[in-house]
Structures are given as structure tokens and as C-alpha cells.
Amino acid sequence: MAQRTIRFRIRPDGLVEELVEGVQGAGCEPLTERIEARLGQVQQRRSTAEAFQSQQLQEHEHQALGQPRAL
Predict the structure, then answer these.
(1) Phi-psi region at 14: left, alpha or beta (left = phi > 0; alpha = psi -120 to 50)
(2) Rounded alpha-carbon distances, angstroms, from residue 65 to 3, 46, 58, 59, 62
(3) Given a cut of 80, is residue 6 above it in pLDDT?
(4) CB under 8 Å to 25, separation ≥6 — which residues?
(5) Dist CA 51 CA 60 (whole Å)
(6) Of 43, 49, 42, 46, whose CA–CA distance to 23 is shortest?
(7) Which pLDDT score is estimated for 10?
(8) Which helix (H) or strand (E) covers residue 7, if one does?
(9) What are the tens digits of pLDDT across the range 10-65?
(10) Residue 13 lies in a domain
(11) Is the residue at 71 inside a domain?
């Protein structure tokens, strides 16, 4: 299993930035939801390239197997 890392940066204005590494697809949200609930309201989410890797790979596998893609 790949190493998963959550990095936090606390800015001078008090905002907390969170970066999840080593998680493909939408798996980072369930991984961080309890932490985010304690930190406060999430103002913005930006997906990294890793967030799309799993989704693209699954689409490619479904097409290769002749299965229809889910929209």
C-alpha cells in the first residue's frame, strides 16, 4: 500500500491549508473529513492530479473491457 500523507500549513492570517498526498481518486475526502470538521468550515477545495488518476484509469479499464462508462 502506498504511503498516504496529510500536510497542513497554518498561514499567518489563521487559515489552514491541507494537502493530501498518496491518495488517488476521491479517497482523500473521507480520509480528512473528521479533521476538517474540527478545524472549521472548508472554504475551498482544489483537486490535485492524483485525484484524477484513479478516475481516468477506471474509465480506461471499462472501455478496454467493453463496459459502458458511468456518467
Answers:
(1) left
(2) 30, 31, 11, 10, 5
(3) yes
(4) 51, 53, 54, 55, 58
(5) 15
(6) 49
(7) 92
(8) strand 5-10
(9) 999 988 898 888 887 778 888 889 988 988 888 888 877 777 775 555 444 445 54
(10) yes
(11) no
In a domain, 38, yes or no: yes
Name the band, by pLDDT with cuts 50, 70 and 90, for residue 9: very high
Domain residue limits at 60: 5-64
Question: What CA–CA distance (Å, rounded) separates 35 from 27?
Answer: 14
Q: Which residue has the cell 490535485?
A: 48
For the chain, the domain total comes to 1
Residue 10 covered by a domain:
yes
What single-letter amino acid sits at 67?
A: Q
- The amino acid that residue 58 corresponds to is Q
